[in-house]
Amino acid sequence: MSFSLFTNDEEEKRFNETVSKIRNIIVVMSGKGGVGKSSVAVNLAYYFAMQGKNVGIMDVDFHGPSIPKLLGIEGKKLGSDESGRIKPVRISDTFHAVSIGLALDSIDSPVIWRGPMKVSAIKQFFCDVEWGELDYLIIDSPPGTGDEPLTVAQFLKDKANALIVTTPQEVSISDVRKSLSFASGLGFKNLGIVVNMSHFVCPKCGEKSYIFNPGNYKKMAEDHNTEILGEIPIEPLVSECGDEGRFFVNVYGKTPAGIEFEKIGEKIFKKLAE
Q: Which helix (H) or strand (E) holds 134?
């Protein structure tokens, strides 16, 4: 007897209808917290939208939903259409978002859920949200290899691509190895690794200074036959834009960090077109 995440055929039909309208699904993961995963997810999603792509971002980090803050939509609520389907919050004509943070009574309300509630919510985000036709669905997953990324993997199987974000410290890199094995074992296609806060660029002369040894993450990528898609430098304006709900790639696209985001986005375009 096979196990199914769906309680009836109608649920599975709605799920398949939703996924059939999404050309590319990217699950943004990290081995540990504090590496800037959500910031990378938001800025890449917005970069895709800037290129005229239809983009959705799904926040499945239920215990720490930061996407509404980063998108500047805190206080807004998910809507519904005449049929009762959930309407994502509009960021622009080509960019929409869904997060549990857009359904809470207060931004300070905690989400106290165990596994089954998370499975149900993720299923609802796929089955009951009117995503429409999307070129890219970005799924912001919580750090680690817990219920949320596991559930997403069980639903999507080989339909999703994993993008893993890390910082250059060895303690972060060791957890990336676990994330790579996790993604591979569950059938995700591996897009590569983004190293965030990898170095400092002198604003006067443009010289790069690596605070941590870049050889550590380069060897890890080589050992796992994984491409490093980009090295985003330390840039306080990335955090400042996130706090203010502005998009760094839009406001500061010509900075070294902005240029690196663009390079990463273009590499992802190319990989998914292969």
A: strand 134-140
pLDDT of residue 95 exceeding 90, the answer is yes
pTM as predicted:
0.94
pLDDT digits (tens, 9 = 90+) for 199-222: 999 888 889 999 889 998 999 999
Name all domains of the chain by residue range, CATH numbers in brackets: 20-273 (3.40.50.300)
Helix (H) or strand (E) holding 27: strand 22-30
- 37 with 29: CB under 8 angstroms? yes
Q: Given CA atoms 117, 122, 127, 128 in this order, what sign does their dihedral have?
A: positive
Residues 232 and 61: their CA atoms lie apart, in Å, by 23
Q: Whole-angstrom Cα distance, residue 27 to residue 18?
A: 16
CA dist 257 to 121, 179, 254, Å? 34, 25, 8
CA distance 254 to 201: 14
